[in-house]
Amino acid sequence: MRPRASGAIHLLNRKMRLMKRIGSLLPTPLRLALLAAAGLALGACSSGSSREEARQAPLAPIRVSGSYWIELSPVLVAANSFYPVQVNVDEGGIPRITSGEADLATNAETQLLRESIRNPDLRIIMTVTESFYRLVGRKSAGINSLADLRGKRIMTPRMTSAHYYLVAMLRHAGISEDEVTLVNLPRGASVLESIDLMSDALQKGEVDVISIWEPEPEDAIHKLGDDAIVLQDRSVYREVFNLHARAPDLADPEKRRAIVRFVRAVADASAALKKEPEKYWPHVSSITRYTHEQIGWGWPEMEFPVHIIPDMLDVLETEEQWVAKNMNREPRSREELAKLIDYSVLEEALAL
Which of 7, 133, 268, 273 has its CA 20 to 30 A from that of 206? Predict the structure, then answer.
């Protein structure tokens, strides 16, 4: 028995038969034009129906992970409000993909350059957030410009995007990393608590400058008051907080379909956050543990581009030199780094 056509296609088939009877009474040119138009209508309906049926089909389960920073907001909102089923976003970055604990995970480009040595199957599939970092220092430490950082004590988490931002800013001022004293983060019960203590260390005079992502810079500005000096140059560096997947998962049709749908959900969540950000802050706050005020502090320093940034490969190539040096290995070529970027998933997602 032949499968029954969907309602819309069944109706169009009836109209096609009617058009053929009418067409038999018309001159040949008009008859051909009429039949061609009917065929296009049927094809469009069939294609639209197929796409809708594909959208409604059950999705393969996916596990999503990300570091609980404000940059994760579009992913958190997508998982809670825009993906067809609610998904928990576990805490942790792309090492969780390598360990098999996650299918999708976020991280800055710095961590991709590190982790992709262990797991060359990692792929950037979309840029979730661009985050513009700020160095915050004390004027009382004799700091009024980048040039004044030479010889200063600077606190930053090692081998992170914040560390690289510091290096990039120093280089911009003609200062080498060896010409400053790097200070480790204070000990806290967690990474988040250690970062929260950075502004306290700056206020107490234990360090002269801190380099970290939001909202800690703004917290430091509030604590220092008139003694705060902010050093920022968006043209020098911005964190590229990407969503990643594994190449074998992208080659699996069912897993890929779920990944594509999630990427579309992140794109929709990004649009919603641009339009009504505060509507979604309660959920972001419940996961990240940042207050609404702290989220508001960091928000102006972030953009949610969805598209992989145009200079992504340039960023990877430049930063790879620093990462490779710190990992005591040879830097990879531009051609090798290009393999870490997959544009096709986002293209499919935005076509849905």
Answer: 133
